[in-house]
Amino acid sequence: MTSRTTTSTVTFVYPFLLPGYSNEFPASTYKIFAEDELLTNLSFAAYRRTATHIRIERADVTGRTELRPVDQHDLDLALSQDQSRINQQNNSEAALSPQEVNK
Fold first, then answer.
1. ∠ CA(4), CA(11), CA(67), 5° rounding?
2. Cβ(12)–Cβ(18) under 8 Å?
3. Tens digit of each residue's pLDDT (9 = 90 or more) over 19-55
4. Residue 26: CB atoms within 10 Å
5. How much of the chain is in helix, strand and coil states, percent to nearest 5?
6. For an engineered disulfide with 36, which of 9, 40, 47, 71 has Cβ 3.0 to 4.6 Å away?
7. CA distance 38 to 44
8. Beta strands of the chain (E only): which ranges?
9. How many CA atoms lie within 13 A of 8 on its CB side?
10. Cβ contact 50:37 at 8 Å
């Protein structure tokens, strides 16, 4: 069976939680590794996601990292929540000044 691994990076502006882990992950940029397998018996190339991992820098040991499995849906939800918090922060900072309100 043919498989592929793709690497991407994601940035969290705020600390976040992922199901299955009791600790909060700090705001940072993380590498994501996605493993896909080629579906056979199709007339076109298609892949199915088989695993997703996030690379975590170990705070207790300098320079050490570990790959932790994560559900792609949970990761997407955490990223969406982070983006929502960013948008809320930007909207509150963009509130009208008192001079604009009195016009």
1. 45
2. no
3. 999 989 999 999 999 999 999 888 898 999 999 999 9
4. 13
5. 25, 40, 35
6. 47
7. 10
8. 3-12, 28-38, 47-57, 65-69
9. 9
10. yes
